[in-house]
Amino acid sequence: MAIDLQSRKTSSKPDAYLQRKFAELCARIKRVDLFAHVLALSLAVVGYALGMAIFDWFAGNATTTAVQATRTIAFFAFVGLFGFLLVQTVRCGMRRVNPYFVAHQLEQTLPDSKNSLINWLDMHDAALPSAFQTNLSSVAAEELQECDVEQAVTKRKNWILLGAHAVPALGLLVLLILGPSALLSSMLRAFLPFYTPPQVTRTQIALVQP
Length: 210
Hints:
Blueprint (H helix, E strand, L loop, with lengths): L1 H58 L5 H30 L4 H9 L8 H8 L6 H17 L2 H4 L3 H9 L1 H13 L1 H12 L19
Helix pairs in contact: 1-2, 1-5, 1-7, 1-8, 1-9, 3-4, 4-5, 8-9
């Protein structure tokens, strides 16, 4: 019995290492996914803002039925999309990352992986002989050290979403330079459709013959 306890103490070090690394990677993947959802929310807002600003730039102060209907439909479409993305963001923040997903992602970075990490997840809590448990944990710990964590926790989607913000941000900046009052009025109409801001007349240049 004393020999068995000593053997289990020896195996506790790789077990503790694996549990700590899996906890860290699960938390890291959750942060990356949550940031991606926040970026999607932000992109929906700035994209809608740019779309409505361009629409108002051409529509001007027109209050025809078609213009009002277009603004209303666009607003409710935006609210629906924003609500959907918000729910997905909240779910992502509350969702627990599956360690098996982490193990699969890690093993994909090794061309000759033998599924040691998944095997450890399957059997590390099982009532196994001490020698077998020690070997299982040691092999899994060695494989984890060889895995490329940066490749497993990919941030490519986040960079794509972040880069996609450049187009609407640049468009809004150009419209802000061309007419800050008109852009403000457009944003009020876009996000507060039942509010009627004062009409803004854009500066026009007329050539007068001498």
